């Protein structure tokens, strides 16, 4: 099978991924705003963000978004470390999450 045929076959899957990426980006943004507003209750929101990042990281590379996948995986692991040691510095973790949101926005709306 040619690379073009594979690319054409992935087009509907890639389109669905972009729709899901948009929804996940919105959810991550909302959860991150909650974390900033309520740091004492951040755990569940961070777990949801981590789950969304895991999904993004797992699919991105296959569909041509390797950089997004790498960023999502780094942020996912950083959240896991933060949840394991909640007294650690949170700001670098939040910056990694914001980096993923910005990378997703670059993919979803390249004109921004």
UniProtKB/TrEMBL annotation:
Protein's UniProt keywords contain Nucleotide-binding: no
Domain of life (superkingdom): Bacteria
UniProtKB keywords: Two-component regulatory system
Any GO BP annotation: phosphorelay signal transduction system
Entry GO MF terms: protein kinase activity
Pfam family, one: Hpt
Protein name: Phosphorelay protein
Domain HPt per the UniProt entry, residue ranges: 14-92
């Amino acid at each position: 099978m040619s690379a073009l045929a594979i690319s054409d076959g992935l087009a509907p899957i890639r389109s669905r991924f972009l729709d899901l990426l948009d929804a996940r980006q919105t959810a991550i943004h909302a959860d991150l705003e909650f974390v900033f507003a309520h740091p004492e209750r951040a755990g569940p929101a961070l777990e949801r963000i981590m789950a969304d990042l895991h999904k993004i990281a797992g699919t991105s590379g296959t569909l041509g978004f390797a950089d997004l996948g790498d960023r999502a995986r780094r942020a996912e692991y950083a959240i896991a470390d933060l949840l394991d040691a909640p007294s650690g510095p949170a700001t670098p973790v939040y910056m990694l999450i914001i980096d993923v949101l910005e990378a997703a926005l670059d993919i979803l709306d390249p004109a921004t």
